[in-house]
Specification:
By secondary structure, the protein is mainly α. Helices cover 50% and strands 2% of the residues.
């Protein structure tokens, strides 16, 4: 399994260095209160989150299982579904580390993001740009720059003006925005924005480091290919195998050739 780390733009204001203060010193924020009675707990919480996010984590279905995904999606499950399963688990990991939502609310958010992502994918399949089926063709990034994107902030392999990169960037931004909308109903906007920004940069760097460098963008270039075996090996629990007669090929909508 690939490893990833939660990422943020270096220019972001999520975590800023604070002056070293004793508990009884005046707080740096100018409130006139002692540090222990003002910003100390908030700073300790930020440091805790920063430490958690800086640790590499193996991509797994710990936060949203392969079986839970299939229950929502039904069959067939494709390589785009596999990509989305990875992204939803990264989202679950981020929400777990920030610990701002209950387990039930986190599950609800992930399911809502699943729906958003599948709708986004379906729109892309019918879009005039046809970014998915013509992934390697050139694309115009003007729509991104007009919206304020600084392309130079992206990893070098995502700066190439291709339709595949346009899809990746718009998908990451759209999913982060959808997460922001979900979280802002539950927590303060500043924290919701911080979490959604973390998700955006985590996706961007995961695509750059893993989709490009390790699997040659297989999940996008072969987005509609059957991924039942990928789900089986990725999941914490194996799926029933049609080759062993535990489930029929008809049920999973796969052919004999689809099963490795």
């Amino acid at each position: 399994m690939e490893k990833y780390k939660m990422e943020r733009n270096e220019k972001s204001n999520i975590i800023k260095p604070r002056p070293k203060l004793g508990r009884n010193d005046l707080c740096y924020c100018g409130s006139g209160k002692k540090y222990k009675n003002c910003c100390m707990k908030k700073d300790q919480e930020k440091e805790r989150i920063e430490n958690l996010l800086s640790q590499y984590e193996t991509v797994s279905d710990k936060y949203f299982t392969a079986k839970e995904y299939i229950k929502l999606s039904g069959y067939p499950i494709t390589k785009f579904d596999f990509f989305l399963l990875e992204i939803l688990n990264m989202t679950g990991s981020i929400l777990y580390k920030y610990n701002k939502t209950s387990n039930d609310k986190t599950e609800e958010i992930i399911k809502n993001l699943y729906k958003y992502s599948k709708d986004f994918y379906k729109e892309c399949l019918n879009c005039k740009n046809n970014c998915i089926d013509n992934s390697l063709k050139n694309a115009d990034f003007k729509s991104l720059t007009d919206d304020g994107f600084d392309i130079n902030e992206l990893p070098e392999n995502l700066q190439e003006p291709t339709r595949m990169n346009l899809f990746y960037i718009e998908f990451a931004n759209g999913l982060a925005t959808a997460l922001m909308d979900q979280l802002s109903k539950e927590i303060e906007n500043e924290t919701a924005n911080e979490i959604s920004e973390t998700l955006y940069w985590t996706i961007i760097d995961y695509v750059s480091d893993n989709c490009y460098d390790h699997c040659n963008n297989e999940c996008l270039l072969e987005h509609d290919k059957n991924a039942y075996c990928k789900f089986c090996t990725f999941g914490s629990k194996k799926l029933p195998c049609p080759k062993e007669g535990n489930i029929s090929y008809e049920t999973i909508k796969a052919s004999y050739e689809d099963i490795e």
